[in-house]
Amino acid sequence: MKIENQNPLQWNFSERAKGMQASFIREILKVTQQPEITSFAGGLPSPATFPVEIMQAAFDKVLSTNGKVALQYGPTDGYMPLRQWIADSLSQNGAKIAPEQVLMVSGSQQALDLIGKVLIDEGSKVLVETPSYLGALQAFSVYRPEFHSVATDEHGLVPSSLDAIAEGARLLYALPNFQNPTGRSLSVERRQELVETCARLNLPLIEDDPYGALSYTGQPSPKMVAMNPEGVIYMGSFSKVLTPGIRLGYVVAPLPMVRRLELAKQAADLHTAQLTQMVVHEVVKDGFLDKHIPTIRELYGNQCKAMLDAMDQHFPKEATWTKPDGGMFIWVELPKHINAMELLDEAIKNKIAFVPGAPFYANEPATNTLRLSFVTVPPERIRAGIEVLGKLIKARM
């Protein structure tokens, strides 16, 4: 019998829940689902790169040969053959990563949440780039830290700026390769300096690396975890090189840290799906990515060039932007009087979408910035969309 409730329940949410905010990007994506919108907004990999037939064959093989194991509960730390493959791929330049240091997670966003849960107390000092990845700011914000912005320049994070702000910090979060949102990458010299500085300051360094394989030249930069496996927590993902739909990422950390992350994961979801881990291992174990990733690099490189060429032609000379040699993003700085949020409203009316830059700042947002993504838009639509956006910017000069 249905109970007639004359007094609807008044939910008493926790202070943590009250402080949660929606991802600005996810909200924009609701608008960009309309087919008439040319979207430079989402950080979505191109569906043209998804190896559908290869994945289907791997699912069929895993289910037909080892289906009962694949469909069963699995260990929290993950499927050992895949963890071994990851450890081997990261053991470079003399560094040796053990599979026991690898924890499989349900997408790298879960890794951010687990790291926050293990390292951040309310009021803890957390260091982030300026600007930084919005998803990390959102994940860490749940634990109510005090964000401190690390200085950056046109070459990315400035390691020498850490000495003045690192005391008492719980972690430094960095994306060294084709950073989201700016597309910038750290030089080899800055990577070495950053690792050495963090080690000297006893500061845990989070190396988030979802885009490292997407170098248009095919020459990936050295990983900081290989420079100091005891002081760096490395985050990787299969979302950008296979498909985001499988929600499979991983964390590589020193054993004391990875064990704490494992305990935190047990409280969250027990384990990441065994089936998808086994399928991904089936796909990657014989070198498929060595053949597949170059096709992604070529596609993204061509579309990046199309956007940069169009910006050179249609954007005003007063605007500046990054020229990435990998990844998925271009970062634009407009004259200071132009508000990118207001520009977005006008752009959407003209069937163009992008992401304003302000949400990517932990402190003191720059309202005259925006992020453009080119990977899901064919070159002809890129050129047409950039022409429209350029006209809208010029109208505000």
Description:
The protein is 40% helix and 14% strand. With 397 residues, it is α/β, with parallel strands linked by helices. A hairpin with a 2-residue loop joins strand 5 and strand 6. The longest helix is centred in the last third of the chain and has 27 residues. The termini are far apart.
**Into how many domains do the coordinates divide?**
2
Instruction: Indicate the radius of gyration in whole angstroms.
Output: 22 Å
In N-to-C order, the SSE pattern is: HHEHHEHEHEEEEHEHEEHHHEEHEEEH
Unreliable segments of 5+ consecutive residues: none
Named at the architecture level, the CATH assignment of the largest domain is 3-Layer(aba) Sandwich
Count, helices: 13
Task: Let me know the number of strands.
Answer: 15
The largest beta-sheet arranges its strands as: 2-10-9-8-7-3-4
Query: Which sheet architecture does the biggest sheet show?
Result: 7 strands, mixed
Kindly report the name of the CATH homologous superfamily of the largest domain. Type I PLP-dependent aspartate aminotransferase-like (Major domain)
Distance from first to last alpha carbon: 65 Å
- Structural class, please? alpha/beta
Shape: globular
Fraction of residues in helices?
A: 40-55%
- What is the name of the CATH class of the largest domain? Alpha Beta
Q: Please state roughly what percent of the residues sit in beta strands, choosing from under 5%, 5-15%, 15-25%, 25-35%, 35-45% or over 45%.
A: 5-15%
**Which topology of the largest domain does CATH recognise?**
Aspartate Aminotransferase, domain 2
Averaged pLDDT: 94
